[in-house]
Structures are given as structure tokens and as C-alpha cells.
Amino acid sequence: MKKRKLCVVTGTRAEYGLLSRLMQMIKDSDQTQLQIIATNMHLSQKYGNTYQEIEKDGFTIDKKIPILEEGKDDANATLKSMAKALAGFADAYDELKPDMVVVLGDRYEILAAATAALIERIPIAHIHGGEITEGAYDDAIRHSITKMSHLHFTSTEQYRKRVIQLGEQPDRVFYVGALGVENIKKLPLMSKAEIEEEVKFTLDENTILVTYHPVTLGNHTAEQDIKDFIGALDERKDLRVFFTMPNSDTGSQVIVDAINKFVVNNSERAISYKSLGIKRYLSVMKRVGAVVGNSSSGLIEVPSFGIPTLNIGDRQKGRISAPSVYDCETDTQSILKGLDYIMSPAFRKHAAESHNPYDKDGTAQTIFDVISTYPLEQLKQKHFYDIQ
Fold it and tell me: Which pLDDT score, from 0 to 100, does residue 247 have?
């Protein structure tokens, strides 16, 4: 029997961490052949050359598509990166001839991957559709990918209904939960002593894990937002700060520069990492007092550890969140008030008792079962589903 060629596209360390268990299932099955295309941040020294993590995990990367305009992070550079990506995926698909392309999320390189697959008439399986993040252009990209895709795997039932609302056939939309939440339950995480030795940093209840990305829509500049955020951290000298660096979005360099300066000036209580890999990242998360910033992981994965999240600004606005997530504005005073609130004993207790709305058993297995067996001929053409 001919193996089904499933081509997984990944452009960031975070997304690879989410996809890695599913990729292993595809690799291990005698029904399927795993193909991997690595692009964007994976191939940049600035972001840690994280394609090496993929190879270290025992995977073979079939195609590398470098797209980043090094030294630039404005809209012009992002558009040029997308153009490079589109050309690169055209050549990669032509050579690999996958039976299906598997993508996750809402980034601009994933939009290029989906666009190329659409034109090549390759069925697309899309994970994490139907979500809302009003503070970033990722929101429009995510819905665009949904309209190009043929199979959909959503993290909540509400998101499943939204994908159907976008005109997708209900029998092709599957509510499966979040891969990141399942990782927490399945991956053997490191002990406190092991992870502290690994990262060379003490982790305690006064340590916050910070990921702060630029907001690509709205009236704020990344420069003003990170200045206000660093201002709050300067005042809270009692807090230890563990930074992971932002994604390669428009405006990210000013955030990287501000973080580097803060770490230099506060070396006794702050550290930063370009990339931790999924196991170390979750191991750090398990040992800190709270997670702070505007990353999706603060809403999706963190509640499973029963610790608070301070979600800053509009980047994640509209996304379903657990009771352990507290939202605040981007100005210094609002952030300080938010830090006081989430670090209080009462809110810590509240967070510890919260349920994660993205938790569902069998996430990766359900996705694998569908993408490995769904009749490809039935996916060749799409029909718009009108809600009666």
C-alpha cells in the first residue's frame, strides 16, 4: 500500500513544539510518510537556528526555505519575506509532491504555505482555526487559511462553530483540544533542580516567565509598549524575570533591544533565551510564579499548571481564556496593578483551582486518525456551507 505523504510546515520554535508529537506519530506509522518543510525563524541565527532542534529530535527536514530579510523588521521586510516564502513553497511542493499539507496557526509564512498548496491543488489540514486575536493581523491571516483549508482541527467547540460559520462543511471540522495542553500531560518534564541547572537561573514563586510580542494592529507602537512594560519591571525589583524572545513579527527588534538592555542592567534577577525548546520551556513554566506578556501560550497552556497569567494589551483580545488569566492595558500603571493582582495569595489560589478550556483528551491521535485516513478524492473540491 502506498504511504500517504503528509507534509508538515513549521516556521517557529513554538509551533514546532506544538506539532512535534503529531509529527512523531506520522513518522512512526506504516500508513504515512512524514515530510518536513522548515522556514522563517528556524533558519535564522538571530532566533537560535532552531532547525537544529528538529534534527536533534531525530527528524529529517526535507526542505529548508530561508525567507527572513535579516536586519529589518518593518512591513516592507515582512512582505518581501512572504514573497520569498511563496516562491520557495512552490518549488518545494513541486519536488516533494505531498498528498496533504499540515499547518498550524496564523503566521505570515503559513499563509504563504497555504496559498501555494491551494494553487497546487494539495489538500490542507489546518490546526487552531476559528480563534480571535483582534490585536494582530494574524487574526485575518488565520481566517484566510481556514478558507483555503480542507480539514480543520479546532481547540474548543466554540471555535469549531466559528469555522463552520465561515462556510466550512461541519463534517470536516473537528473539535480536538489544544496540542500544547496535551504536551503538558504527555511530556516528562524536568525537575526543579534539573531545569535550574540547565538554564542557570533560580526559579521560584517570585519569578515571572515573560514573552512579549509586537502588536501588529492598533494605535500603539512596539517601542512605546515595551518601554511601558520595562518601566513596570524596573519598579518591581522583587521579581525575577525569565524572558523568551519575541517572534519575527513587524516591530520585534525594538523589543529584543529593550529586553537585552534590561537583562544587562539587572543580571542578578533577569535572563533571556532565544529558544528553550518545548521540554525546557514547559519545565520553566511549571516552576515559576506567573506568566506575563501577550503570547497565546499564556492563555492556552499556562492554565494547565494552575498558575496566574497576566495578559497585556489587545494582542490576544477575543481569545477564550481560563479564570486564571487576568487582562490589563499596556501602560506602566495598569501593568503594575495587574502584577499586584495576579501575585496576590487570593488570585494564586483562584488560578490553582481553574479549569483549562483547551484541555481535551486524545488531541494528537484524533488529528492523526483523520489526516491519515480521510479520502483525498473527497477533498478536491469545497462547497460553501450556509448556516440555515
Answer: 78
Per-residue pLDDT tens for 90-103?
Answer: 999 999 999 999 99
* Residue 218 pLDDT: 67
SS3 call for 42: helix
- HSE-up (13 A, CA, CB side) for residue 260: 8
Distance CA 222, CA 212 (A): 10
Question: What pTM did the predictor assign?
Answer: 0.90
DSSP 247: P
Supply the pLDDT for residue 37. 98
Neighbours of 384 (CB within 10 A): 9
**Domains delineated in the chain:** 4-177+360-379 (3.40.50.2000), 188-352 (3.40.50.2000)
Question: CA-CA distance, 354 to 388, in Å (whole number)?
Answer: 36
What integer pLDDT is reported at residue 104 of this predicted model?
97
Cβ neighbours of 153 (radius 10 Å): 30
**In Å, what is the CA distance from 119 to each residue of 94, 314, 381?**
11, 34, 13
Where are the alpha helices (H) located in 238-310, listed in sequence order? 252-265, 278-287, 297-300
Q: Report residue 238 CA to chain centroid gap.
A: 29
pLDDT digits (tens, 9 = 90+) for 208-220: 999 998 876 667 7
Query: Grid cell 510580542 — which residue?
Result: 213
Among the listed residues 239, 235, 208, 250, the one whose alpha carbon sits nearest the alpha carbon of residue 69:
250
